[in-house]
Amino acid sequence: MKKLFDEVKMNRLTVKNRLVRSATWEGIADPYGNIDERSYKIYEELARGGVGLIIGGFTSVADNDFYFDGMMRLSNNSLIPQYKKLTDLVHKYDCKIIAQLALGAFYRNGAQIEPDYMTADEIKTVIQQFAEAAERAEKAGFDGVQIHAAHFFFLSRFISPRVNHRTDIYGGNTDNRMRILLEIMDGIREVCPDLHITIKINSSDFTFGGLEQDESLYISKRLSAFGIDSIEVSGNGTSVGGIKAHVNEAYFLDFAAKLADEVQTPIILVGGLRAKDTMEDVLNTTKIELLSLSRPLLREPDFPNRLRDEENAVSKCVSCNRCYSSDCHKCVFRR
Fold first, then answer.
1. For residue range 132-156, what is the model confidence (pLDDT) as tens digits?
2. Residues 265, 229: contact at Cβ < 8 Å?
3. Which of 53, 55, 70, 117 could form a cystine bridge with 27, CB 3.0-4.6 A?
4. Is 269 helix (H, G, I), strand (E, B) or coil?
5. Distance CA 19, CA 11 (A)
6. How far apart are CA 180 and CA 177, in angstroms?
7. How far apart are CA 244 and CA 67, in angstroms?
8. Could you tell me if 202 and 162 are in contact, meaning their C-beta atoms sit under 8 angstroms apart?
9. Can you give the pTM of this predicted structure?
């Protein structure tokens, strides 16, 4: 019988429990990716709150990625020391931390370029950027990296048939569109053979002509066969409002459970988890190994400790999504 507070051993990573803080946008880094002092407080509070693994917020691999203001970055070596300070704070609490490596969009001469119009050399540049950022993450003390291929950012768009209409080896069919993911994995493995590599992927793009569940399942199974260490299942248009305990939790569960049945790779479920008994039921009726939380930890960074100590714990998050319009994505109900 699986329990929330089992130790979990995965390839290249062991975590003290099954609770993961899913990557959550803060938007408070400066334009060069330097960490705001508030970030240190946020991550230390999360680690102290009892979560076993933290996946850091969206961290761009490119200096010239202007998709958002406030992005963290691992795009040059000068950033390594301040990220080392961050990982040291988290590790004090026997908590592991993974850097979410991402690209909002590809830019050429300041203009956003869609995948169809990129040259082969530009695609190779992106692959190299991910590998170099992973090497910086390892030097900064991160326990792994997550390739962000969800939520319709660059990699999610690249693998989607809605966006990618290339006719070369990077387009035209599923295997070609996902080739960039395998080459990024290869690039990271070459420079960081001992680093845990996970990926976040849409179960569906939920848009006409986009990635649908059968194709996403195929891609995920290919990633598993290729040696990805874990997979976090998400979807485009996340953060469903109005989630209530025991009513409409775990909205990506069906896909994640099916994937977990078909691969040996540990599967991480994110999306609408609120009650302890729901979480335990997911663990013990499926082969899903870890559960990922975002909004509940904005409301209560110490929710994992309460899950450990209270038999019938339920998150105080009401899924109002007002955190997304607040400074630093704070819960508006926290005092």
1. 999 999 999 999 999 999 999 999 9
2. yes
3. 70
4. strand
5. 17
6. 7
7. 33
8. no
9. 0.97
